[in-house]
Structure of Cytochrome c-553:
Amino acid sequence: MQLLSVMPSCKSRTYSLPTKGNVKEGGQNPVVEKRKQEMKFMKSLAPTLLAAIVALSPIFNPPVSLGQTTDVHRGATLFGRACIGCHYAGGNIIQPGATLFLKDLQRNGIDTEEEIYRVTYYGKGRMPGFGENCTPRGQCTFGQRLQEEEIKLLAEFVKSQADQGWPNIESFGD
């Protein structure tokens, strides 16, 4: 069935509507043929789309909990208050070989949260200890001491930052 366009700019064009009698020479309806091509294309995309959905699914990549986010924020705040003066961006302005980057932590045998906690609590070398019961007094900070829970948060924060190569932490500050 042939239709004449009623639009002024398309007067000279005619369009065919698919009907029973509108069949190509090969015996296939053009609409059916186009549908088959579309289905074939969609089937070729299915594995890729499924892989993307699985990879982005919260089941396989659980979101960070509010508690973890709060701990990171508290760790960053403590770091900014007690450590950043000497360890800006994970470096060390006093002793360049004792940075908080993973390579230096490993070389110095301080690459676990427990070791980072111990050094932060009692101090080591030129670094003062910040623990409430830090001894000897000469190795400890003359400034404000930190509670055990605060030092634990600091150790977790420093370890996670070291594992990530010390990305920009300015967004965590108060």
Summary: The beta strands are 2-4, 14-16, 123-124, 127-128.
